[in-house]
Amino acid sequence: MRGLEARVAMVTGGARGIGAACVRRLAEEGCRLVIVDIDLDAAQALANELGDSAIAVRADVASETDVSASMDQAVKRFGGVDLFHLNAGVGGDYTPISEAETEDYDRVMAIDLRGVFFGLRAATRHLRDRGVPGAIVTTSSVGGLVGGEWIAAYHAAKHGVIGLTKSAAMHGGRFGIRANAVPSEIASAVAFLLSDDASYITGTVMVIDGGTMADHPRARALASAHAAQAA
Ligand SMILES: NC(=O)c1ccc[n+]([C@@H]2O[C@H](COP(=O)([O-])OP(=O)(O)OC[C@H]3O[C@@H](n4cnc5c(N)ncnc54)[C@H](O)[C@@H]3O)[C@@H](O)[C@H]2O)c1
């Protein structure tokens, strides 16, 4: 993909899962990587695998101080960051809203929404001040497009991630910064959105969900009823 070779990409929650898959994919595309995670050992293990082109940074995305310190470490090592994948997130307790604990709500919102706010703010400030174009991808979820009986805080945070991303895209356009959200887990989509091949795509949500959002349960029930009638 165009525009990824030799660029510096920061991936939060990059030590495992979706973040680690994106780190590996971006490394294959020639990016240098800043792997940010609360679990430094896991992040370091992945950075060691990638060699000199990657560093591991311990940061809690819910901490403004940590986010700022992680930017400083990236600048110290690579001189700046061009691409950001703000991916770190947690699920939360599986309870209906009537049983939800305030502590769990606050924890999920702090990591999944406030953490993305800190990341988007730091990324746009950094790119604006350097005067270079850049790209940002946030990880939302299908849960950011629909509600659900369980994990209301997660749904609220992931809906919020999309709103924050669209707003960052509108402001970022002034400085050549694109921002898009992905509701699922495909590393190639993240690499594409960060690349120059996606230069006209900003403020969008790319849904990669195996057709989940296209499949309305009522439509399915109607189709079964018609099939039963026809039989
Ligand atoms: N797994 C799914 O099916 C799925 C679907 C849709 C969206 N998502 C979203 O994708 C993202 C990654 O999910 P995953 O399944 O790879 O999770 P995961 O638990 O496998 O990995 C998350 C990583 O984030 C790190 N992390 C957690 N809290 C952190 C914090 N406060 N600061 C910094 N790092 C932190 C963890 O140490 C871990 O390395 C999340 O935002 C999640 O909500 C996941």
| Secondary structural class | alpha/beta
Q: Which term fits the overall shape?
A: globular
What is the strand tally?
A: 6
Lateral arrangement of strands in the main beta sheet: 3-2-1-4-5-6
The largest β sheet comes out as: 6 strands, parallel
Please report which band the strand proportion falls in: under 5%, 5-15%, 15-25%, 25-35%, 35-45% or over 45%.
Answer: 5-15%
- Order of helical and strand elements: EHEHEHEHEHEHH
| Distance, first to last CA | 51 Å
Count of discrete alpha- or pi-helical segments spanning 4 or more residues? 7
Radius of gyration: 19 Å
Mean pLDDT: 95
Residue share in helix: 40-55%
Ligand inventory? nicotinamide-adenine-dinucleotide
What are the segments in which pLDDT stays under 50 over at least 5 consecutive residues? none
Report what the structure shows.
The longest helix has 29 residues, at 102-130. The chain is of the alpha/beta class and 231 residues long. The protein is built from 7 helices and 6 strands. Helix 1 (17-28) crosses helix 6 (187-194), helix 3 (64-78) packs parallel to helix 4 and helix 4 packs parallel to helix 5 (152-172). Bound molecules: nicotinamide-adenine-dinucleotide. Nicotinamide-adenine-dinucleotide is lined by residues 12-13, 15-19, 37-39, 42, 60-62, 87-90, 111, 139, 141, 184-185.
